[in-house]
Amino acid sequence: MQRDLKAPVLEIKNFNVDYGLGEESVQAVRDVTLTLHRGEVLGLAGESGSGKSTLAYGITRLLPPPGVISGGSVIYHPPGDQPYDVMALTNAELRAFRWAETSIVFQGAMNSLNPVHKVSTQMLDVIRAHEPQLSQQARVARAQEMLKLVGISADRMDAFPHQLSGGMRQRVMIGMALVLEPQVVIMDEPTTALDVVMQRQILAQLVQLRERIGFSVLFITHDLSLLVEFSDRIAIMYGGRIVESARAADLYKQALHPYSDGLLHSFPALRGPRRELTGIPGSPPDLGAMPSGCAFHPRCPKAFDPCADTMPLLEAPTTHPGEDRNVACWLHAVERVRG
Ligand code: ATP
Ligand code: MG
After folding, report:
1. Is-above-0.85 flag for pTM?
2. How far is it, in rounded angstroms, from Cα 57 to Cα 104?
């Protein structure tokens, strides 16, 4: 199916998040500009601590203290209506926005089902809160249909969460996130607690559902191999910044940022000749003591003169015209200067 991957649904612009205030504060998300297009699966990858969850909580205004959004906007484009800035919504408007327009499956969400209520009750509550005009019968039909879509049979509807396996609970959470047919679904490591086979199964199902229901997905994981397989585009985060974004196929063919390249070489090749598994030496930066220039330079095998002094901008490299990709790396910025 050909999708219009050009129309934006969520535009994150120059987004900043700090933890704490004043001198003690650290910058967890910096100048993130990223667009999710209609019908697209956008993957966000990066090592632990790179700011992925902070970004997800920030853009949905669910950031708990001491997190502070210190700049930027998140423009949401409702279908057939005027776009608006999520950062400017009142609390009441936000409640309607969440679930109905954008829903989120959090890291470790499978444990966030209420243990004392049946799965069906929890799902019906969500529907009731947002679509009070629906009859009980219509709600039950909707809940059943959604659970069926995520592979939970109708006879498990009345189970309590502890009666379900981890994979099933995760499916329920994904079903709850989709039940109001939101435009945007944000999934923050929704499958890490599951085994690899289950992860792939759930993701494959999600991509199929996307084809049928037509939502857009921001899928967050540190497992780049999943994204290469299932997403349309991939953005790579390091030290709170996006360092590269590209179509999944283009990134897999050739990562331009040495950090993305390191991540790609942290898992075995999906097909074709075996790649050497090298991984990335060193560890992610300490937010309280970020390296100067490009934050990756102390770990970068290709660092050279400008890298330690000046931060490279996230820009389209001139070497890959027509690929719709951006990279923040002096290796490619220098090409640009040379023309
Ligand atoms: P993971 O892959 O482990 O989930 P992540 O990319 O989601 O990592 P975040 O949880 O967004 O990373 O954290 C980004 C940075 O913000 C980390 O360096 C973390 O230490 C810091 N951080 C997160 N929560 C807080 C907090 N409550 N107070 C201070 N710093 C925090
Ligand atoms: Mg996280």
Report:
1. yes
2. 9
Is residue 230 within 8 A of residue 204, CB to CB? The reply is yes
Contact 26, 19 (CB under 8 A): yes
pLDDT confidence of residue 1? 43
CA 173/CA 123 separation, integer angstroms: 9
Q: Where are the domains of the chain?
A: 1-101+182-278, 112-181
Phi, psi of 169 (to 5 degrees): -60, -40
Return the CATH number of 1-101+182-278, one of 3.40.50.1000, 3.30.930.10, 3.90.550.10, 3.40.50.300. 3.40.50.300
- Interval between CA 56 and ligand 2 midpoint (Å): 9
147-203 pLDDT tens trace = 888 888 888 889 999 999 888 888 888 888 888 889 999 999 877 666 777 778 778
Cα–Cα distance, 158 to 170 (Å, whole number): 16
d(CA 181, CA 138): 15
Rounded to whole angstroms, the Cα distance separating 324 from 339 reads 18
Is the CB of 48 inside a 6 Å radius of any atom of ligand 1?
yes
Give the number of whichever ligand sits closest to the CA of residue 241. Answer: 1
C-alpha radius of gyration, the chain, whole number:
21
Counting ligands in written order, the one closest to the CA of 68 is 1
Structural contact between residues 209 and 242, judged by C-beta atoms closer than 8 angstroms: no
CB 255 within 8 A of CB 67: no
- 70 within 8 A of 32, measured Cβ to Cβ: no
Determine whether the shortest distance from the Cβ of 222 to ligand 1 is under 6 A: yes
287 lines ligand 1 (CB under 6 A): yes
Nearest ligand 1 atom to alpha carbon 54: 11
The count of C-alpha atoms lying within 13 angstroms of the C-alpha of 280, restricted to the half-sphere facing its C-beta, is 22
What is the maximal distance between C-alpha atoms in the chain? 67
